[in-house]
Amino acid sequence: MLRQNNSFNNMQPGVRHGAQALTDPTAQGPAVSLTRAAIRFGDVVAFQDVTLSVAPGEFLSVVGPSGCGKTTILNFLAGLLPQNVLTEGEINILGKPPIIGNPNVGYMLARDSLLPWRTALGNAEFGMEARGVPKKMRRDHAREMLARVGLSGFENSYPKELSHGMRQRVALARTFSLDAEILLMDEPYGALDAQTKFQLEELLMSLWQENRRTVIFITHDLAEAIALGDRVVVMAPRPGRVLGDIQIDLPRPRHLRELQKNHRYHDLYRNVWTTLEKGFEMGAIR
Ligand SMILES: Nc1ncnc2c1ncn2[C@@H]1O[C@H](COP(=O)(O)OP(=O)(O)O)[C@@H](O)[C@H]1O
Ligand SMILES: [Mg+2]
Prior knowledge:
CATH architecture of the domain at 29-104 and 186-196 and 218-286: 3-Layer(aba) Sandwich
Largest sheet: 6 strands, mixed
Shape: globular
Strand content: 15-25%
Bound molecules: adenosine-5'-diphosphate, magnesium ion
CATH class of the domain at 29-104 and 186-196 and 218-286: Alpha Beta
Order of helices and strands: HEEEHEEHHHHEHEHEEH
Radius of gyration: 19 Å
Number of helices: 9
Distance between the termini: 41 Å
Number of strands: 9
Structural class: alpha/beta
Helix content: 25-40%
Oligomer: single chain
């Protein structure tokens, strides 16, 4: 799959840069790879013996109970943890060890990741600002992205004036406006009501389908993991490890409202659930 050039010279979402893609030296390898990786915080083993490879443009969902190391994986990939917590194995992002502030990486959290003193527009453009995109260009692009996530007319609203769903829309606009190759999403919809969550899942799918970046999407919700993902990795805690890696062979584009009627979807749900249960039987989940 072709990769996206990451410069801000042409920030139109959905525009691919084939010429640069062909010269991208990392285009052949996995976007993210963990090889027999273990991370420890002192005596606490966050996870161990995790081997996982995510292809460019792949949407990987990760499920597993609290404490199995999901957030730690994303934090490490985002360069937020010191290298020395990786006590075994190797973790690479686009073929290299993670670094903080990597422009190829976008990170979206569950809640309250907006700056309260900035408007929706100010928040949507923040990532681009941090990366030195000139003011007019980032303003225009942030405005476009807010429109894309359904927030035209709310540019000047502050986070406290927006519902939680709207705040997550702003966070989506900010994350997608960076045009990063790799998006790390840590339970971004975990705190939303079912209806809003569904709308935001559909929005994420349509943004992602316009221009497929690599996504690692963490969720507690098995239905969400299957509906969105190309694969679902199931983890177990104490110590954190991978129990299963299940290919989601549902055709795309997916119409999330239709999935309930799809037999294959229910088979996959059972499969993911059975894998999670294995952790339960092994005494890993308490
Ligand atoms: N900075 C840290 N210092 C010490 N222990 C940590 C730190 N971050 C995570 N842990 C521990 O690592 C394990 C995995 O945590 P985490 O990655 O947050 O799991 P999850 O996101 O799957 O719930 C837990 O036991 C947690 O307490
Ligand atoms: Mg977590």
